[in-house]
Design a protein that fits this description.
It contains 7 helices and 8 strands, in the order E-H-E-H-E-H-E-H-E-H-E-H-H-E-E. Helices cover 39% and strands 15% of the residues. The chain binds nicotinamide-adenine-dinucleotide. Pfam families: adh_short.
Amino acid sequence: MTSSTTPAPTPGSVALITGGTGGFGRALATKLKALDVTVVLADLDSERNRQVADELGCPFVVLDVSDRAANAAVVAQVEADHGRLDAAFLNAGIAGKSRQALDVDEFLKVVDIDLFGVVYGTEAALPALRRAGGGSIVVTASLAGLAPLATDPGYSVAKGGAITFVRSMAARVIDENITMTAICPGFADTAIIDGIRQTFIDNNFPILSAEEVADAMIAAWTSGEPGAAYIVQPGIGAVPYKFKGVPAAKTATGETAGVPGALRPGSAT
Ligand SMILES: NC(=O)c1ccc[n+]([C@@H]2O[C@H](COP(=O)([O-])OP(=O)(O)OC[C@H]3O[C@@H](n4cnc5c(N)ncnc54)[C@H](O)[C@@H]3O)[C@@H](O)[C@H]2O)c1
C-alpha cells in the first residue's frame, strides 16, 4: 500500500477519528479534509483539544474511549449532525510510563483505553456503518502488538489484543460490506514519544512522520484487506504482516483435521 496507488475515499464521506487531536489524528484529518471527507475529531475534553480541532476546521466531540456508553453517544451525534458514518478510525491511545517490573494499575488503565476503547468503538460504529451500506473500521494498533515491548507490557498486551480483535471480528462483518483492519506503526514523531525522542535522535534511529502513518490509515480505509495488520516502518512503508498460523490438529489416522464448518465465520451456530 502506498499513497501514490491508494484509491481516494469517496468525496462527501464522513469519518470519525478518536484521539483525533493527537499527532496521527491531526495528520489524518488534514489529509482527509483535502480529499473532501467530513472529519469529526473525538478526544478528551480540553481547551487545547478544542482549539486544535478548530484550527483544522473539524467538528470536535468530547469522548473518553474507555466509557462504553459515550462511544455510542458520539456515533449517534455524528449521524445526527452529518447524516452517516463511513469510516471509524479507532486511534486513541496512551502508553505506560511506569518503570516498575509490573505496575498493574497502569497496566489496567492502558488496556482500558487501548484495547477496550477499540472494542467499545467498534460496538458503537458497526450499526452506523451498516446503515451507511458498509464502511470501514481502522484500528491504530502498534508494532508493539506484534513484537513484545519489554518496557511497556500493558501497551503490548493492549495492542496485541486489538490486532487479534480486528482479525477475529473482520470475518464476522465482511458480509455486511464492513472492512476491519489494523495499523501497526513503529515509533513515530508524536507526543506519545516525548519521553524517548531524544534517545532516538542520539542513536540516529529512524522514526516515522505522522504523515506516513496517516497515508497508511487512508489506504487501510480505501483498499485494506479485511483482518489485515499493516506494519508501518521507516524505509519500508506499509506492508501486511504475514501471520505464521498454527499447526493443525491430526486425526487418529494422521490426516489434517479441518475446523468443522459450524465453527467457521458466517455459520449460524
Ligand atoms: N507515535 C508512535 O510512536 C506510535 C506508534 C504506534 C502506535 N501508536 C498509536 O497511535 C495512536 C495515536 O497516538 P499518537 O502517536 O498520535 O499520540 P498522541 O499522544 O499525539 O495522540 C493520542 C491521542 O489520544 C487521546 N487520548 C488519550 N486517552 C484517551 C481517551 N481515554 N479517550 C479519548 N482520547 C484519548 C489523546 O488526548 C491524544 O490526542 C495511539 O493509539 C498510539 O498508541 C503511536
